[in-house]
UniProtKB/TrEMBL annotation:
Gene3D superfamilies: 3.40.50.920, 3.40.50.970. E1 component of the 2-oxoglutarate dehydrogenase (OGDH) complex which catalyzes the decarboxylation of 2-oxoglutarate, the first step in the conversion of 2-oxoglutarate to succinyl-CoA and CO(2). GO terms for molecular function: oxidoreductase activity, acting on the aldehyde or oxo group of donors, disulfide as acceptor. The lineage of its organism: Bacteria, Pseudomonadati, Pseudomonadota, Alphaproteobacteria, Sphingomonadales. This is 2-oxoglutarate dehydrogenase E1 component. SMART domains: Transket_pyr (SM00861). Homodimer. Part of the 2-oxoglutarate dehydrogenase (OGDH) complex composed of E1 (2-oxoglutarate dehydrogenase), E2 (dihydrolipoamide succinyltransferase) and E3 (dihydrolipoamide dehydrogenase); the complex contains multiple copies of the three enzymatic components (E1, E2 and E3). Residues 355-532 form the Transketolase-like pyrimidine-binding domain.
Amino acid sequence: MSVSEAQTNLGIDPAVLKQIYRQMARIKAVDKAILRGLSSGRFVFNYWPMTGQEAIPAALAQLIDKNDYMVTTYRGIHDQVAKGVPLDRLFAETLGRIDGVNKGKGGAPHISDPDSGSMLTTAIVGAGPPIANGLALAASIRGQNRVTVVNFGDGATSIGAVHEAMNMAAVWKLPIIFLCQNNQWAEYTPYAGYTATERLSQRAAAYGFTGVTLDGNDPIELYRGLKPLVEQVRNGAGPVFVEAMTLRLGKHAGVGDSVQLTKEELVTGKANEPVGRTRSLLLETGTANEDELAAMDADAENEVEAAITKALTSEQTRSDETLIDVYADADAVPQRGKYPVRGNVSIPDGPSKKMLMCGAVTDAQRIAMEIDPEVILLGEDVADPTGGVFKTSVGLETQFGSARVRSTPIAEAAIIGAGTGAAMVGMRPVTELMFCDFIGVCMDQISNHAAKQRYMSGGATHVPMTIRMIVGGGIGGFGAQHSQSLEAWLTHTPGLKVAYPSTPADAKGLLLSCIFDEDPCVHLESIMLLRGFKGEVPDSDYRIPLGVADVKREGNDISLITYGWQVHQCLAAAEELHKEGISAEVIDLRTLLPLDYHRVLESVRKTRRALVVHAATEFCGLGAEIAQTINVELFSKLIAPADRLGAEFAPIGFSGLIESTQIPSSGSIAARVREIVSNKG
């Protein structure tokens, strides 16, 4: 006969307490098996032990289910076990096997299992909370009764992205629990060595929501403390911060006891560790007997051993998987010697309006939001009446509401993280960065998370997000931190797609393609063109496929290969050269990744000369990649080596005289063409 809550006076249903212990036994068995296997050489992989932290996810597991979202860190294997990730597939993943939950492509630090609600594991300290916000935002917009839990260590609270995320969650009252598992060590630095805060939970009050500190080694206090907080968040009261105090008994990484703790601290810590403490409590109160607990322990060990045995029989993930899951379509991956033919694209006929590029961008977003209610806009000042600093979203909040068009705090990591999380669960966020230069503030979220999530998860999750960036160069007066063309940073990141339109019509068609693409896309918009160039734009919904270049002007003597606002400089140079009897063909790449090498090489086969032009710094710019490919593929056919022309290697000067000379112009382009054409080889 079971012992009642009243009989034990524990303040918890005995059946729940036994379930918590059962989960802790499973976590402990996993930890012991990994440490034993690493010590014996049975297997090898990187491991960050969570020894001593078993009670936290075990107690939480009784209050959430697979429909609730979870984000955790590289030390979060205990979180994965409690959330319900299948153990055989979990172990196969840590071993780099094809039957792993992510096909062996993510490994232990990057587990993603949507079936259990374990959405993302990050190996970057403090990077999870912004993405967890996006998961919570999607649930909020959809009216779903989901809670998002984001786990992180105490050391992560020193990271700016965590603070950005907490502030955004508070402003939007997101259904999220920030769960800090405070094991009192930030890698190798003790708590007092990196913060003067008495309790980390105190920080929540500064953002306007509840913060509590609980004993992370006491399953009853954890359960009773977490239960009302989970209900509060689930009922729409906004975020909470939970600091669960525990102690890391193992090393930061690897096998063995902590070498940071003194002998006395280690002895005391082991005496207070949650598994033994809970076991004793169950026995002392008569809630369970020794046979019951021994059976639970044995079941856990048998389950873990069976999972490891099965995982070890799985095949190592082979090299033929290398280029799969980089993008939805493997043909988007740049590969030497493989240049897909993607056909011709023309702007459709029909009713049109003459408009600025900013108007075309707004029109594209309006059409996308009418087509799909899951398209949302996030960015600084994007809501009405401002409608974006560059007026690219005017009227959209009025038409579609504040839930879908959201002005954000000035917090780029939080913006991109929220977009990434929302996209992972099927929304199509359009996130705006006011200037391309600001990717330096949020590059981690772009390159380490949005770009890599499809690959790290083995295709289990992906990020159909669009990032709009304004490129400020060429207009003068913005200086070194608002004028950079940083597309080479982006094209060097596997998983991203990059578009850079030169006309309003192209901007609309490319942006619509980006929004409905299944991969994260960056849409670069030149400030020179946003409000300085008008063109006819069809009223209809039309798409310019990514990876299809456009011949803006035909010619026979040299191919000018370019993109963005430099297209207009090249066209002006071609007109000037025409007067001198030099026929220049102008190729507008439109998309930088995927890149239409087929059309580029087709043009250069005809002209036998090439110059790649961009506003970005010439040294290590995209032009070097394109020129080298042309030289390799068409070496025997060229009259002169393919060359490139970019900005001088200096920050963009505030002085108009400096900027106008350091970035290619029609005059400098024409001058370089004359040099190339005069070279007879």
